[in-house]
Amino acid sequence: MKTIIKNGTVITAGDSILQDILIEGGVIKALGKNFPEYGCNIIDAKGKYIMPGGIDAHTHLDMPFGGTVSSDDFFTGHKAAAFGGTTCHIDFALQSKGETLKKGVQDWKARAKDKAAVDYSFHIAVTDPTQETIDEIPSLKDEGVTSLKVFLAYKGVFQVDDTAFMSTMNKAAESGMLTMVHAENGDAIAVKTKELLNAGKTDMKYHSVAHSEAIEAEAINRAVSFVEITGAPLYIVHIASGNGIEAVRKGRRKGLPVMGETCVQYLFITDEALDQEGFEGAKYICSPPPKKEEDKKAIWEGLTDNTLQTIATDHCPFWFDGTKEGRTPGKELGKASWDKVPNGVPGIEDRFPMTWHGAVNSGKITPNKFVELISTNPAKIFGMYPKKGTIAVGSDADIVVFDPNKKHTISAETHHMNVDYNLYEGTTVTGWPEKVLVRGKLLVDGEKWLGEAGFGEFVFRNTHNDII
Ligand code: DUC
Ligand code: ZN
Ligand code: ZN
Question: How far does the centroid of ligand 3 lie from the alpha carbon of residue 48, in Å?
Answer without folding.
Answer: 33
